[in-house]
Amino acid sequence: MNKQPIISIQGLSKTYDGGFQALRDVDLEIRKGEIFALLGPNGAGKTTLINIVCGIVNPTEGRVTVDGHDIITGYRATRSMIGLVPQELPTEAFETVWNTVSFSRGLFGKPANPGHIESVLKSLSLWDKKDNKMMTLSGGMKRRVLIAKALSHEPRILFLDEPTAGVDVELRQDMWNLVRGLRDSGVTIILTTHYIEEAEQMAERVGVINQGSLILVQEKQELMDRLGNKQLRLHLHEPLESIPEALSGFDLEFVPESCELIYTYHSQRERTGVTMLLLALGEERITFHDVDTKQSSLEEIFVNLVTWEK
Amino acid sequence: MNLYAVKAIYVFEMARTFRTIYQSILAPVISTSLYFVVFGAAIGSRITAVEGVSYGAFIVPGLVMLSLLTQSISNASFGIYFPRFTGTIYEVLSAPISYVEILLGYVGAAATKSIILGVIILATATLFVPLQVAHPLIMLTFLVLTSVTFSLFGFIIGIWADGFEKLQIIPLLVVMPLTFLGGSFYSVNMLPPFWQTVTLFNPVVYLVSGFRWSFYELADVSLWVSIGMTGVFLTGCLVTVWWIFRTGYRLKA
Questions:
Q1: Residue of A21, A85, A107 to mutate, interface with B, max B Cβ within 10 Å
Q2: How far is A266 from chain B (nearest CA, A)?
Q3: Which chain B residues are closer than 8 Å to A149 by Cβ?
Q4: Could you tell me if residue B80 is inside a domain?
Q5: What residue segments make up the domains of chain A, in order of their start?
Q6: B87 lies in a domain?
Q7: Is residue B62 one of the residues assigned to a domain?
Q8: ipTM, 2 dp
Q9: A229-296 has which CATH code?
Q10: Confidence of residue A264 (pLDDT cuts 50, 70, 90)
Q11: Residue A271, SS3?
Q12: In Å, how far are A27, A44, A255, B14, B62 from B116, measured between CA atoms?
């Protein structure tokens, strides 16, 4: 993957008129062609960040460039590169799908191209709805139309702000397949989502934002390796009444009358303690018939990070 | 210049007009025709001619101006308010389009609708009263200037309004009374001297007077004063719109 940044954010802050500070001195670089997931709780500043890059919200301080162009002085160049799928579902109720998608293409300075609009609608399974008025569509279909609008002008960067909120499982899978296809064609994708398993599946890098500050930006795998705990789960032959004294030095989780003994450890540490634990179990004549390990999910990491920040 | 964007907004707005043709075109034409029937034919037949022009014909410029003003404001204010209300304004704000281009799209479409409507009303008037246009070019200039100016004014109202009620307040409580009291149905000279002076504070007087002059060479104030006052109002609207875009007032947080 190309490591050259396509979006560069430096010292970005935003304070709204009411005094609420939504962003605090954010520095971030998005690489060309990557899928970047921006995670954070509600009100963390994700949408404000996206809206500033897209030109919908004015920054209070800081500078943003897109492919080397400043978003204020070179707004025509930056905005023509960007497609945005907003979190809400704002649509022109009385317009047809075809008209509203064609409108978006014109608005972004592209000449009419019915062939492209047709292929976008077909890729989103909207072709048979092209003459339907927006108000007749379901929420999921409206979401597809918003994606079609964002793709109508062939953007090089696509912002997806909670794109799968309120969308059924099948449609969600279709969307992610589409996103992967876009990424393969060279489009840079920045997404925010509450479905952290999606970020885990889709993203190459993850940024965590909380209370307006960017807490962390890292390769997803590195993040999971660095901050992720691993659990060793031992399925015992016989349930324990209590943890023997010899095992009290290990961080063991034990549910009385359960046949499971869980050992949590940091997989990246030089000494994980697994060998010592197994030896100690042998000395205590505690036998087990199966063993498995489980890596912490991105969600668990995210919750830990945000909780730690508080 | 992003002409594709201007065209997209313009066509989108014009399409809305033709989709709501009963409300946009037919309703104002019918209501203006009723004015012709009531004031022109029924009551007008009992009123003596005003400076040689039959009363029915005398009120035509005022009625056209009434429609131009109300429709320009209504079209432009609704055109920009509706995307703000539904949230679709995000797309315009995030598009590679300048403020001038946004104005050309929205205000251009609103003014075009008003001009079309004005022409239709003039054509309708010929069915009821004998109509003459002494200075077609000046008439056209007033038609276009008024439509553009009040479409800009409507655009400002559409940005300012934070509810449907506010959209209606200025047209109904300010513009409509000013138009009725601005010499649409009478010559200012018919008023007592004190009220003649008061009337001169009403900007609509200058629009109606100049527009009527282009028809019958009858005016309450000088043609150039009319053109000048229209220019002043146009400049005021342009400065306000410039300020709105510069500050992002009610558009950008």
A1: A107
A2: 44
A3: 91
A4: yes
A5: 5-224, 229-296
A6: yes
A7: yes
A8: 0.85
A9: 3.30.70
A10: confident
A11: coil
A12: 53, 50, 81, 11, 17
* Chain-chain contact of B252 with A57 (C-beta, under 8 angstroms): yes
Burial of B165 (0-12, 13-18, 19+ CB in 10 A): exposed
Q: Which chain A residue shows the shortest CA-CA distance from B253? A: A57
Reference B80, options B2, B172, B173, B12; nearest CA is B12
**A55, A80, A90 ranked by CB distance to B86: nearest:** A90
- The sign one gets for the Cα dihedral B16, B22, B24, B25 is positive
Q: What CATH architecture applies to the domain A5-224?
A: 3-Layer(aba) Sandwich (3.40)
What are the two backbone dihedrals, phi and then psi, of residue A3, each rounded to the nearest 5 degrees?
A: -95, 0
Q: Is B137 on the interface with A (CB under 8 A)?
A: no
Query: Is there a domain that residue B213 lies in?
Result: yes
pLDDT at B169 over 70: yes
Give tens-digit pLDDT for A207-221: 989 889 998 898 888
**Most A CBs within 10 Å, among B85, B91, B244, B251, to test the A interface:** B91
Quote the number of domains for chain B. Answer: 1
Q: Which residues of B touch A102 (CB under 8 A)?
A: 8
Helix and strand element counts for chain B (H, E): 13, 0
Residues of B within 8 A of A106 (CB-CB) are 4-5, 7-8, 11
Cβ-nearest to A107 among B19, B87, B91 = B91
Banded model confidence at residue A257, pLDDT cuts 50, 70, 90 = low
The sheet with strand A252-254 has its strands ordered as: A252-254, A260-266, A229-236, A288-295
Which residues 59-118 on chain B approach chain A with CB closer than 8 angstroms?
A: 83, 86-88, 90-98
State the residue range of the domain holding B209: 3-247
pLDDT in tens, B35-64: 878 877 777 777 777 778 888 888 889 889
Has residue A302 got a pLDDT over 60? yes
**Inter-chain residue contact A55 with B94, CB threshold 8 Å:** yes
